Amino acid sequence: MRLAIVCPCYNEQEVLPQSAQRLTDLLDHLIGAGKVSSDSFMMFVNDGSRDRTWEVITQLHESNKYVKGVNLARNVGHQNAIMAGMMTARDMADGVVTIDADLQDDLKCIPTMVDDFAAGYDIVYGVKVSREKDPVLKRLTAVAFYKLQEKMGVECVYNHADFRFMSRRALQMLSEYGERNLYLRGLIPMIGLHSTTVDDVISERTAGKSKYNLSRMLGLALDGITSFSVKPILGIIYLGMLSMFIGLGIGCYVVGSLIMGTAVKGWSSLMLSIWLSSGMLMISIGIVGIYIGKIYNEVKRRPLYHIDKILE
Hints:
Largest sheet: 8 strands, mixed
Oligomer: single chain
Mean pLDDT: 84
Strand order of the largest sheet: 7-5-6-4-1-2-3-8
Helix content: 40-55%
Strand content: 15-25%
Order of helices and strands: EHEHEHEHEHEHHEHHHE
Shape: elongated
């Protein structure tokens, strides 16, 4: 089989030379073992980086026979950059592995993914079994994120990020999904082809800094939930019912206070009801607004990305 390893890159000039060398060693090993063909390759996708990332990719392409590159016209985000790489590599390879350019995911999983493909699996997910190298905040937020997704009814693979293998057949099916708001971790399991998992042990970054800060992780979590679940909308209904019961309770309290002669002429009940109802209204409007915004983006049918240049 011809294997493509797709790596999205955003401001990764420090880590790319090391990553390219590690992937070169991996491809040499796989080719030597007869697991993949000699025309297998790695493809770095430059997602509108502001540093020398594209220049480094170009240099690597000139000096390394395995390196190909895709330069996106502007920054479109991690999920869209992965999609651009997969769709570009789809017709060049029999299977595609996606992995972040820092290679914190376990490269030892890739030979196992290739073996699983030979055994008949179209999709192989890398599932994190250890996050000891991740910062404490990232570990805690990741666990909370997956549990929240599960509660919201989002079908996804627990502790799986974007390290996975997909066959050409699976990629063709993925291309038929027309979402503009991409959340691949929830979208790919919907394909339904024969899949399995491999254990992924996270390692430390060798250079550079992670681009996934707290705000980006929260944005991804919000996309994942609102793109695949309507439970937040149902939550608004339950919130409204709760508000109604609280209002009845406040009414009973006010009547009782008037009878007992202990009421403070409307201040407490008025302020409590105003703050409670206004807070719930703002939350409700915000949740509905998120869904309306997603509908707005979907109906415009704008392209997910534009490719400026491909190095083949």
